[in-house]
Amino acid sequence: MPVISIDTFFACSLMVLLTLSAMAASSKLLYPYINNAVDVNSVERFREASKYMLLSKGSPADWGQRDSTILERFGLARAGSDAAYELDIDKVSRLNDENSYAVPYAQIFEALKMSDVSFRLEVKPLFEVSINLTSTFNAVNETIYQFEISTQRHGAQVPASLKCYAVTSNYFNVGFVGSASGQAYVNVTLPNNIGGPALLAVLAKANSNTNVVSFNAYGFAHNSAQPKQKGTFLKLGPLNYTLTASTKYPNINLSEAYALAFNYNSTLTKTTGNDTFSTYNIPRILDSSPTLLVVTGENSTAFFAEWTAYPQIPVEVGANFANPTTIALTNVFAYPYIITIGSAFYECTVWIGGPRG
Fold first, then answer.
1. Looking at residue 298, what is its pLDDT?
2. How many CA atoms lie less than 13 Å away from 109 in the CB half-sphere?
3. Is the pTM of this model over 0.85?
4. How many Cα atoms within 13 Å fall on the side-chain side of residue 249?
5. Is the distance from CB of 181 to CB of 158 less than 8 angstroms?
6. Which pLDDT does position 31 carry in this prediction?
7. Residues near 325 by Cβ (< 8 Å), separated by ≥ 6?
8. % the chain with pLDDT above 90
9. How confident is the model over 33-57, as pLDDT tens digits?
10. What is the DSSP string of 167-209?
């Protein structure tokens, strides 16, 4: 797909979103489909059910912000908003099993009130950011790492602007890369008198629309062994603009925490903590960008940098429709949407399946 097609895709998708926003009141008409009170075929019923998940706030309406709340009815729309397809940052984050306050699928299924169907829901950026370390240059006092950063959608380049952050032990640096055609090379210079591993975090905004955003992060060795897999040392749970960092092993000491957006970054202040967890306030950033949350520390003598995003995406929750047995017994339909969280656009796909007739 040529670059112009990608720009056209984003433009058309946003036009569709604006059209659907005028239909916000229709969410009140969708409830009968949930109870199967009208006689419609499976395709239409499932389509309306998928809309209901995204247009309804659920019950209680603020279930995303309160981890102790019992979810009575499932819905992802943001409480206090009448905009169509505007999802709540915490409701989406709690679908992610990496979140400390994740809601299990069994509870979501029961709260949907559709006992005869299964579903799967995915929220992710509209394009992907890939980071690859291509070369390393060693000097006396510093080491230069060259990275190739690609911004693509289904293999086609997406022109985008990039913001890069480098984090390692007692070191934080910000770099900006201007408009890239879909591929850019970034140099990260680290002093040799500091240890690693290090983390390169990248946020990207599509040139065609700055509300279309994506991100990724890449851990690499610097005067150290290779970094451990993401999530090895900490479980990170953002909820209601508070980050909880729960340790997975004893003798872990946390040092710094950062909030990284495209046009803003800050060091987070610890609000509470003990040997097993620490909490930090997350700033409410007025930027059409997710916030990357990075927490650094040491496990005995090994430095680490753990990270997550807020909203905590990409996320997939629900039934495994890839299972051949499930497919054989189920009519499965996929319904894609463009949704907003904050002022940023993301892609949401809802798969719904019911027994074959």
1. 92
2. 14
3. yes
4. 13
5. no
6. 42
7. none
8. 66
9. 444 443 457 788 889 999 999 999 9
10. EETTEEEEEEEEEESSEEEEEEEEETTS---EEEEEEEEETT-
Cα separations in angstroms, 63 against 88, 146, 206, 237, 297 = 10, 44, 32, 16, 32
Beta strands in the chain (DSSP E): 118-124, 128-138, 142-153, 156-157, 160-168, 171-180, 183-191, 198-206, 213-220, 234-239, 242-247, 252-260, 265-267, 270-273, 277-281, 291-299, 302-310, 315-318, 330-341, 344-355
User: Tens digit of pLDDT for each residue in 216-249?
Assistant: 999 999 999 899 999 999 999 999 999 999 999 8
Residue segments in the chain with a per-residue pLDDT below the cut of 70? 1-40, 323-330, 356-357
Q: From CA 264, how far away is CA 338, in angstroms rounded? A: 25
Q: What would the two tokens of residue 298 be?
A: 């040491």
Residue 186 phi, psi dihedral angles, 5° rounding: -125, 130
Please, what is the Cα angle at 183 between 181 and 185, to 5 degrees? 120
CA gap 184, 180 in Å, rounded = 6
Run of H or E residues at 75: none
What is the per-residue DSSP string for 21-71?
HTTGGGGGGSHHHHTT-S---HHHHHHHHHHHHHH---BSTTTTT-TT---
Q: φ, ψ for residue 37 (rounded to 5)?
A: -85, -5
State how far the Cα of 199 lies from the Cα of 169, in Å rounded to an integer: 10
